[in-house]
Amino acid sequence: MLKKVKTVEKLVDAGVIAVVRGKDKTEAIKAAHALIKGGIKGIEVTFTVPQADQIIAEIANHYKNDASVIVGAGTVLDIVTARIAIMAGASFIVSPAFDREIAELCNLYQVPYSPGCMTITEMQTALKSGVDIIKLFPGSAYGSDIIKAIKAPLPQANIMPTGGVSLENMAEWFNAGVVAVGVGGNLLKPAEVGDFDAVTKMAKQYIDKLKEIRKK
Question: 0.90 cut: is pTM over it?
Fold first, then answer.
């Protein structure tokens, strides 16, 4: 059980999980390096990127001696993709929706599974299946006020909102009680035009903000 617990702790420590998309393998790898350079330690490579398993393998191998960096797979829609990701070296699996087969496979390999849930019913089902961190998705549909409402019946739920999290509202989410946030769009926008230095700068802003929030 220890392996899974340690991975969950690393995800919580990372605080900001960067959702890496990209038009191709090269862009995604460059973006991941730029994010890590800026201080972001949690990297979620989505399976919407071509050759996602190769990207995961390359990044995980590159940072294998840095215990703080954690690389996982996102947009995992089925059990086959989940196993491919785990074999490639993904330390955690993220889905847009809950899938029991993926949950069972992840438990088998002691890999944390974070499915996208919107309702209390979905969250309860996910928790019963051994999910450690629930991805509130899309976060933009609710805003941070929803966390308090979820925590009333499910105080034990660890929640990570993804979608709609920005530098401006990040503090609101953490103050509401989330354990981490997933950030994609605005963080990686500069990568689309090949400006990876801007990605590093943006990553640094998110990490500075996280440190400021956690100091309080």
Answer: yes
